């Protein structure tokens, strides 16, 4: 509701909203870490990440014998893997260049057609950039993801967890470029420098010159006017329209496709069965008869076979979507303060659509024990840090004091912009450290409960250990008094007699010593009796 209030009362690019948004991002991430620890104790999954599952595809370079266990294990030198990991640098540059060129080109075509071109078929040509992006971006992303997977395989990670972390980081780079680069171009290239860059896009008139006259092809450079509302429209598209389209492509389209495919298979089965029955006099054999199912189990087994044909439910896709959504909120929500409201509604619908997919469209996912969301939490922290930079830049560039008559930012000084970003980033780091320290002092309930149970378990163990040793010494008060009287009668002669009797046995001296120690209480009584006896002997000698 804070975003709705800011949109209603303050408007876009509010410094108050930007500060609160950055603070919320910090608190959210630190609170998430605290909740992870709390839930891992509640669900008894704490420490499961220490159990590392080895990859079957791991290829050791050599085998050595473990000195502690004595078993043979394969190893892969860390230096070799590090050299292979250096290939991530050209891969990241390749991803930025490939996706950046496609997005920037489509972005330039869109600006040219929508704001410069004034010829025929403009209402249809305006869809060319969207068609190009829809066709090229998924294709290029698929190619880059397959390259990232092969590169990850080449790095030869020993455990499944390390492999998953490295692959997630590579995919995050690709998603970061495809999701945020168009908005970055609009915010930091188009809006500030449109009056200087866009008129040079007249080179595109070469493509339309054979079809229209030069006078009708484009407007003159002086007639160009920058659309200051373009950034807000683009943010609304990515946070509302794109989310609706993604929901339809992920839930509705697969459901319809699954139903149509099932109907088509049923149609083919009936058609083939009819042809076989017409061509031969044999009775048609149903699928249930082929599997030799029991009549009472037929309905259940048919449902099981249908579910086996469904696709797997991938939780990683949900984490990726939520991470991208958090990025839009952290980086660009000051442009349109209703972004949190939009995501709240979207997540309410998305949660129920995921339930629907699990129940209807996908196989039942098998549970995996985990104590954290892994590398996605690092991605959230990175987006929050980048958000502190972009929020400061947007608030400085697009505040009302820097807007020109056309809505474009004016009187922007480079040193002032860099100084604003520098101070805001360091304030962000200080606040994050303070919030992290404050959260560390608030111990979750389940963590506190686990510590209490651990303490009681250790206490019971110690009590049982010492209780077993002293169980023979737990006697009544009368027996203790009688025992003390008997022990008081011990003299040097009786002790020497006991020593002679033990010497007759073939035992080790240490064993004989410990065999005498039946408990700490008796040992203390024996010691006290010996001390009193020695004192009496010493006093008697002095008197003599």
UniProtKB/TrEMBL annotation:
It comes from the Eukaryota. One of its GO terms (molecular function) is chloride channel activity. It is a multi-pass membrane protein. It is found in: Membrane. Keywords: Membrane, Transmembrane, Transmembrane helix. Residues 2-453 form the Anoctamin transmembrane domain. This is DUF590-domain-containing protein. It comes from Aspergillus saccharolyticus JOP 1030-1.
């Amino acid at each position: 509701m804070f975003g709705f209030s800011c949109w209603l009362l303050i408007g876009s690019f509010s410094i108050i909203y930007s500060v609160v948004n950055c603070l919320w991002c910090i608190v959210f991430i630190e609170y998430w870490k605290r909740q992870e620890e709390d839930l891992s104790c509640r669900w008894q999954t704490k420490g499961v990440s220490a159990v590392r599952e080895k990859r079957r595809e791991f290829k050791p370079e050599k085998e050595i014998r473990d000195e502690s266990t004595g078993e043979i294990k394969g190893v892969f030198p860390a230096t070799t893997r590090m050299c292979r990991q250096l290939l991530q640098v050209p891969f990241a540059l390749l991803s930025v260049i490939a996706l950046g060129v496609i997005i920037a080109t489509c972005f330039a075509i869109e600006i040219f057609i929508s704001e410069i071109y004034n010829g025929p078929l403009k209402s249809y040509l305006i869809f060319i950039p969207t068609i190009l992006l829809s066709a090229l971006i998924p294709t290029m992303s698929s190619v880059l993801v397959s390259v990232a997977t092969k590169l990850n395989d080449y790095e030869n990670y020993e455990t499944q967890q390390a492999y998953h972390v490295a692959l997630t980081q590579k995919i995050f780079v690709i998603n970061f470029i495809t999701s945020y680069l168009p908005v970055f171009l609009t915010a930091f290239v188009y809006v500030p420098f449109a009056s200087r860059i866009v008129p040079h896009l007249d080179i595109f008139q070469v493509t339309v010159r054979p079809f229209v006259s030069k006078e009708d092809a484009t407007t003159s450079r002086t007639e160009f006017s920058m659309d200051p509302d373009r950034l807000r429209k683009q943010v609304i598209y990515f946070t509302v329209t794109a989310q609706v389209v993604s929901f339809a492509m992920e839930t509705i389209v697969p459901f319809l496709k699954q139903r149509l495919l099932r109907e088509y298979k049923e149609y083919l089965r009936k058609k083939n069965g009819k042809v076989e029955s017409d061509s031969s006099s044999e009775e048609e054999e149903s699928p249930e008869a082929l599997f030799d199912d029991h009549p009472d189990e037929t309905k259940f087994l048919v449902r099981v076979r249908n579910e086996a044909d469904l696709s797997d439910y991938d939780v990683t896709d949900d984490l990726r979507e939520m991470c991208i959504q958090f990025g839009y909120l952290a980086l660009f929500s000051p442009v349109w303060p209703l972004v949190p409201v939009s995501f709240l509604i979207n997540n309410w619908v998305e949660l129920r659509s995921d339930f629907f997919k699990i129940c209807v469209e996908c196989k039942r996912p098998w549970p995996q024990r985990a104590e954290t969301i892994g590398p996605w939490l690092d991605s959230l922290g990175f987006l929050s840090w980048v958000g502190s930079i972009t929020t400061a830049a947007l608030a400085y560039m697009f505040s009302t004091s820097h807007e020109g008559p056309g809505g474009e930012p004016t009187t922007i000084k480079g040193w002032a912009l860099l100084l604003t970003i520098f101070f805001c980033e360091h304030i962000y780091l200080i606040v994050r450290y303070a919030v992290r320290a404050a959260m560390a002092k608030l111990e979750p309930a389940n963590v506190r409960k686990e510590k209490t149970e651990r303490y009681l378990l250790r206490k019971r163990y110690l009590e049982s250990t010492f209780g077993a040793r002293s169980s023979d010494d737990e006697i009544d008060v009368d027996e203790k008094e009688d025992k003390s009287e008997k022990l008081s009668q011990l003299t040097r002669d009786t002790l020497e007699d006991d020593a002679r009797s033990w010497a007759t046995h073939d035992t080790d001296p240490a064993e004989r010593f410990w065999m005498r120690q039946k408990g700490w209480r008796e040992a203390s009584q024996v010691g006290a009796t010996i001390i009193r006896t020695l004192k009496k002997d010493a006093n008697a000698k002095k008197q003599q």
